Amino acid sequence: MWFTSDNAAPVPPAVLAALARANEGFTPGYGADALTLQVQDRLRHLFEAPEAVVHLVTTGTAANALALGTLCPPWGAVFCQTEAHVAVDECGAPEFFTHGAKLVLVDGPQGRMSPEALRATIAASGQSLHNVQRGAVSITNVTEAGTVHSAAETALLCAVARDFGLPVHLDGARFCNAVAATGATPAALTWRAGVDVLSFGGTKNGLMGVEAVIFFDPAKAREFELRRKRGGHLLSKGRYLAAQMLAMLEDHRWLDWAAHANGMAARLAHGLAAKGIALRHPVEANILFPIWPEGQSARLRAAGAAFYDMPAPAGHEGARLVTSWATTESEVAAFLKLF
Amino acid sequence: MWFTSDNAAPVPPAVLAALARANEGFTPGYGADALTLQVQDRLRHLFEAPEAVVHLVTTGTAANALALGTLCPPWGAVFCQTEAHVAVDECGAPEFFTHGAKLVLVDGPQGRMSPEALRATIAASGQSLHNVQRGAVSITNVTEAGTVHSAAETALLCAVARDFGLPVHLDGARFCNAVAATGATPAALTWRAGVDVLSFGGTKNGLMGVEAVIFFDPAKAREFELRRKRGGHLLSKGRYLAAQMLAMLEDHRWLDWAAHANGMAARLAHGLAAKGIALRHPVEANILFPIWPEGQSARLRAAGAAFYDMPAPAGHEGARLVTSWATTESEVAAFLKLF
Amino acid sequence: MWFTSDNAAPVPPAVLAALARANEGFTPGYGADALTLQVQDRLRHLFEAPEAVVHLVTTGTAANALALGTLCPPWGAVFCQTEAHVAVDECGAPEFFTHGAKLVLVDGPQGRMSPEALRATIAASGQSLHNVQRGAVSITNVTEAGTVHSAAETALLCAVARDFGLPVHLDGARFCNAVAATGATPAALTWRAGVDVLSFGGTKNGLMGVEAVIFFDPAKAREFELRRKRGGHLLSKGRYLAAQMLAMLEDHRWLDWAAHANGMAARLAHGLAAKGIALRHPVEANILFPIWPEGQSARLRAAGAAFYDMPAPAGHEGARLVTSWATTESEVAAFLKLF
Amino acid sequence: MWFTSDNAAPVPPAVLAALARANEGFTPGYGADALTLQVQDRLRHLFEAPEAVVHLVTTGTAANALALGTLCPPWGAVFCQTEAHVAVDECGAPEFFTHGAKLVLVDGPQGRMSPEALRATIAASGQSLHNVQRGAVSITNVTEAGTVHSAAETALLCAVARDFGLPVHLDGARFCNAVAATGATPAALTWRAGVDVLSFGGTKNGLMGVEAVIFFDPAKAREFELRRKRGGHLLSKGRYLAAQMLAMLEDHRWLDWAAHANGMAARLAHGLAAKGIALRHPVEANILFPIWPEGQSARLRAAGAAFYDMPAPAGHEGARLVTSWATTESEVAAFLKLF
């Protein structure tokens, strides 16, 4: 009953098997190996984006911050949701990699960014020499609240960005879960909607630490490569990142794992609702925010459940539960029995 | 006959086995897992440094640049050897992570830093408000020329740094090879000689991409952790880094693999000398810089050998050969037969 | 009738006279001249702070950003009021000079920072490795809304900062006006209340471009000097900055000029109130924010008045009026006659 | 007999008079005043560059570092002479404003940059992802050794830069002295030779602290303005910078003052040679590097002379003498009498 995060789970056996297969013979270093070339092609194919430039890194923070550094100048503003990972959970990595850009927070319901709020916030931002200049928009899908932006919603946000001439970054640490949740194609949720650069997460979906940064517009790809090397994020033995990502992309695993995680979350949500437990946000992907009576958290932990605490109204306790490819039906059932 | 770099080799089976063993159940993230705690202890033990603080990252560039960022202020100078990896091969990562420090080059024979040159260079550096201030010294062992600093030589360099009140970083991307070459203990080559922070390389010695940064003085360890997170170098699934490093530390593998690589290089050097091929530098670890007659490189490559070209006098061709844990005696013999 | 800003005014004759007097003979450069030493002493005396370290720069943005760079690490948060100059009007200079710190906005009524909001905001800020760390508090007095923090209010804010172990910067671009408004001593409004570093403004009070940065705790003064040089803010001919600041400090001019400006603003406020014009904020120093009926702005400008537009409710127009040492009673009277 | 630096002198009366004239009435701030517009036109005219963009700052370090920040990316190399002010005397300001570029040193005789050495250094710099990329060339004229680059020499250096596609910055802290020394036009020494951006010095030629940055290619001018504001280098009361620079540009004063300084240096050089004193470098502008017998420095200082010490061979003492607009014939004669 381990629900702290999708990064607490082990990796699927297919990932280990792929590493073993990749471990044959000598290869060129620094991303010039055959598996890296193969995974780049595979992702271009998955995203129906033959011109896209794809690079692998090991953390979501690196993917996001390197992408934002490439899109936004030091004197720029990155418009992002108030609770966005880039704003709250990366110890200022975007500020570091942009050399000092400002993250300007945009509100929205249920962890989503609202197009109206985005438009109003950008419009209200100054444009004189005295102000930080408008730089980029960063959307998150799945959001930190566990909600999902549909392709249409994403397109609305991108349209606002386009009205102001701003490029769009999508933090897709849980992008596979968003695809599973919406049923939209990867292309529909990204470049067809207007996204310029995607952080495509593999780690939270089952890899050891592999994310892809996908530039749908290749114009800035060389700069990205220099930033990646300079950031210490160019691994010499690229094959071990590529092999994992390829394993995830084969046989629809990327979608199956995410769909399984989403399904387990739905099952938890259904079960909790049946017990009268309120949820702070709609459960659309693999994250839940239940609010239960005081004392419940200790009882659950005593029974072996692991999760993070969250704020809650008086007399209650809040929690965050995250499911993963490794969450089982029996775990869910056992957890629900504790109520 | 793949001699381009030690990072071109596959990883030893023990590494894959360790990953498989680590892949059981759920763990806390971000370095709070049991394997990470274990590898930290194991390295403290190996270095006879019970107070040392140990953190893992995935690249040598990250290890070096994060360490230098922690030791040297933005307005500081890092004194390093002219050919040092931090100066030449990291696309300015030290400048990025220090927020703009200056790398001041120190000469020395055979890729080594000379204590006299170090002292003269530091002494000649200005100390007024108009000058970059003295910040840190960065030594490399094994050097980029494939030579080795003995414990006594390291101590001489550190003594110079101490005379000026400067902390010392040691880039040990091939530290295991240096231990194997010198027969000194890890402690003797580092903190006993006066080193403050070590980049302890695992990748070139057989891991997929794992380096440890070891702070012998724990004073700046918290700052390092913040810099690591902010640099996107804190992996959520720490167990997969720790498991690899543990596999290397068990059963003297760290030393066996390095000693094997050094031995293969010695065998190559011996064989080349017997063929009358000159070597640019003494072969003390696992890197060779042969200079052979024009036309030889093409012949070798046609026969399947892989290596990097290096500058050479007219009528000759230079090359760099690097051996690894995976280099075999038969490969070496086959290569030598091509002369 | 020029009310755009206090930086639109000429400088008082005493400033020109001081420049002429300073223009005798040769002097050492870079702040080692006699006038610079003299102004440092004079400011230490004015602030009853014999240990304080004083340095001159030419802009308020430089003073603020250099001070914040010295107080707050790159991974730190600067807590400041939502409308603070450092947050809104400096094109990200604090982010640049801190190497990427985050400005976290704190609300408060009438442009002031509220101690309760400051405490709540700091308390709510995360402290894990994933979050930007608490770095410094920056207060503004006179505020951007033209209101003033009393010594007691300043002390309350500093007490909150101290509870969290944070240093306090005070942006005093209009500090002289705050002294004139409150009747408190310079010491009472700064270090006695708990302020660590003050940006002491001369430019808006009548100088050509001179600000002093005053470190009441001299511990970080050397670092400040290096940051100033590295920022291009160490002028070689220090005497011309020092002479101006000395001219302002002599004969109570610093207070007289500010009191005059405040008085003219009060007169404007009184006159506007008599005409039934609402003011967005209480007029406590030398800035007013009147809201008048639509069409009034054009009429005023046609008659020769200069001021900035501000947002206003429908059917109205907002403006910002700033008075200075050079504003005259007759100007004020002429302006009021236009209503 | 004050020869420490040209920045130790007072300013000419015309500068004070111009400040007094500028001190009339109210003006728009931040460089939108009439005098700033006028000085921009005047410099465009002087340089025969009607498209050039001109901005004023207060220090040479700011001019250079802001210009280099605009020309060279964070991962770039700035190729400059070994003794260049940007490399040696600015406490890392170029590294700060470029966000971490590397200054790569190019040798050359007598403080000059040699085109051959420049070409060789650029050609030798790596171009892989692992290396800092070629960014910009920075020339100095007058050099730190007091020598001068002719228009033809400047063109040769710029041609090398152009061969590699690199923009050229010219540090002209003593540019007026270079014009006076060469007899070339300002245009011939800059854009006609291939210079893209000039730091045009006023301070060392008699102003209180005013330098112009001139972009002959206006493409990056807006970015420069944002960098200037963000660096705290946009003064609100632009008229006082502009008035000084205009005073210098009127009536050929810029050239007269520089020619006078050069003439006084020539007179010193002639006199010293007559006394058998060797000079380290040819005296081409307003700086001399005499080498005299041990003991002479103390004797000169006892007699009231002021200058900086420089390294010298055993048994000798080295010095640096700098003349200015304010150096008089009688001072020179009195100094020479001390030998």
Describe the structure.
Four copies of one chain form a homotetramer. The model of chain A has no long low-confidence stretch (mean pLDDT 97). Chain A is globular, with a radius of gyration of 20 Å. Helices cover 39% and strands 17% of the residues of chain A. By secondary structure, chain A is an alpha/beta fold. The longest helix of chain A is centred in the C-terminal third of the chain and has 22 residues. In chain A, a hairpin with a 5-residue loop joins strand 11 and strand 12. The first copy, chain A, has 13 helices and twelve strands. Chain A has two domains: 241 residues, Type I PLP-dependent aspartate aminotransferase-like (Major domain) (Aspartate Aminotransferase, domain 2, 3-Layer(aba) Sandwich), CATH 3.40.640.10; 84 residues, Aspartate Aminotransferase, domain 1. In chain A, helix 1 crosses helix 10. The first copy, chain A, starts with 12 loop residues before the first helix and ends with a helix. The first copy, chain A, has a seven-stranded mixed β-sheet, with helices on both faces. In chain A, strands 8, 9, 10, 11 and 12 form a five-stranded antiparallel β-sheet that branches. Chains A and B meet through helix 1, helix 3, helix 5 and helix 9 of A and helix 1, helix 3, helix 5 and helix 9 of B.
